[in-house]
Amino acid sequence: MAMSSYEIVRRSIEFTGPERLPLHIGNPQKSDVRTVRWNFIGEGDHNLKKSYDEWGCLWVRSGEQNMGQIKGHPLSSWHNLNTFHWPDPNNHTFFEGMESRFANCEGKYVITTIFMLLFERMWALRGFENLLADFYLERENVDNLADHILEFDLGIIQNISQRFNKRIHGLLFSEDWGTQQGLMIKPQLWKDFFKPRYQKLFNAIHEKGWHVWMHSDGRINAILGDLIEIGVDVINIEQPNIVGIEEVGSQYRGQICFETSVDIQKTLPFKSPDEIRKEAHSLLQHWAHPCGGFIIEMHDDNIMALGLAPEKIQIMMDAFSEADPWKTR
After folding, report:
1. Could you tell me the strand order of the sheet in which 109-114 lies?
2. What residues have CB less than 8 Å from 167, skipping those under 6 apart?
3. Same-domain check for residues 54 and 170
4. Are residues 208 and 314 in the same domain?
5. pLDDT digits over 26-81, tens only?
6. Which of 132, 152, 156, 202 is least surrounded by CB atoms within 10 angstroms?
7. pLDDT tens across 219-245, in order?
8. What is the pTM of this model?
9. Together in a domain, 271 and 302
10. What interhelical angle do 119-126 and 128-137 show, nearest 10?
């Protein structure tokens, strides 16, 4: 009997032998992973050029529908901290209608999400440059800010667990930590300030029986070992050439499940079909373990944003399929 989508993804994450490569793609029928969201937009209304999210951050967009940028930071002055209205994780409207979103998830691996988990939400509220200075000049205030956000995240995890625990298998979040050259802050500061807070969050996720899925762009090599140590199960890397395919594989293959595609920054948009195939095969060679540890990821928003030709996506998918280390049929 063929494994269910859930079983294939779980076995890849836990290194217990899937029968093929799992897919996390835009096509809901073919994807092994489905996302069930709660009612927290996080970046405001995409249909408006200007809108506020639930934290009071002002998002500004071009005329086209897109994610936009944060141009208004409600805590740009610390004087606003005492009167700031923190969102309530127990707000029942966040979870209204969520039940219906589990339709057609039978047999799938189901994830839910928290948008802008900690670092990203901190700079969204405070402003990026302000926040970087705060670590040295306003430590008490920045501790307070981080802990308020942490409390909210833990409350959301608890509420979703109470309502839908048996139907959720993983929690996905985004925290972009890397530039093209390295970490955005000193690794020791990350270890001192963020690592124990992430540990608390990841412990809470694991206590619910869920896997921890993390997306981070850029060269995050300096903290990848720490992320594994504190419990990240799946790391989403869309720029494998930035972190180094062979470099990362030699250090961490078999310790974490990689969710990735051929590099969306350098390879897919600009390289030849032969180069796309070669990189897909290299990723499987260096990142996939004989017992698991690899998920193919490609989403419609990346395809649209990069203007990728469908035939290039097909070349990549075919290359992964022909080199699938676990395929049994």
Report:
1. 23-25, 294-298, 257-260, 234-237, 211-215, 170-174, 109-114, 33-35
2. 36, 102, 105, 110
3. no
4. yes
5. 888 899 999 999 998 777 777 788 989 999 999 998 866 577 899 999 999 999 98
6. 132
7. 999 999 999 999 999 999 999 999 999
8. 0.95
9. yes
10. 100
